[in-house]
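hiii so um. not sure if this is the right channel but i have a protein structure encoded as tokens and i wanna go backwards to a sequence. like what aa goes where. can anyone help
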């Protein structure tokens, strides 16, 4: 039965494979892993924001909730961007690089006001992800348009 379906042509269009051999494109793989870790840190920051508001007796609860919702929405965009880049789709660079610029701007704006152990990893992560995504090999690996090589849209 499987020989017959392959002889007739594809019965369904398979989902696109991940970026071809990610171990050969180590900068892209590192950039995606670091961006994923940034997403986890954002989730932790959102939970911490709500937890600290509850401990403080709901002082400034509206601000904490709005900030947490914003962070979680950006995590969603970041995850979608990482997934798209993993599948080789170019549109994923937009949300991931946008977050890197926002994160770097936040870090640079609070230098001297926040501890260095919190700021410098943010700056380094932004640089690592930005450079990793913009290297020619990474751009080539993620230059597939949304609809090419599959009939599905992410």
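sure thing!! here u go:
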């Amino acid at each position: 039965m499987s020989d017959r379906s392959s002889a007739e042509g594809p019965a369904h269009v398979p989902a696109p494979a991940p970026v071809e051999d990610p171990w050969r494109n180590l900068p892209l793989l590192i950039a995606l892993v670091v961006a994923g870790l940034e997403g986890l840190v954002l989730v932790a920051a959102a939970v911490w924001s709500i937890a600290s508001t509850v401990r403080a007796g709901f002082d400034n609860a509206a601000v904490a909730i709005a900030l947490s919702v914003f962070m979680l929405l950006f995590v969603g965009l970041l995850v979608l961007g990482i997934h798209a880049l993993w599948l080789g789709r170019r549109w994923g660079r937009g949300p991931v690089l946008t977050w890197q610029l926002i994160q770097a701007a936040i870090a640079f704006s609070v230098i001297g006001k926040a501890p260095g152990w919190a700021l410098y990893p943010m700056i380094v992560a932004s640089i690592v992800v930005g450079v990793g995504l913009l290297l020619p090999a990474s751009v080539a690996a993620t230059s597939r348009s949304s609809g090419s090589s599959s009939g599905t849209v992410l």
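oh and Residues 26-55 form the longest helix (30 residues).
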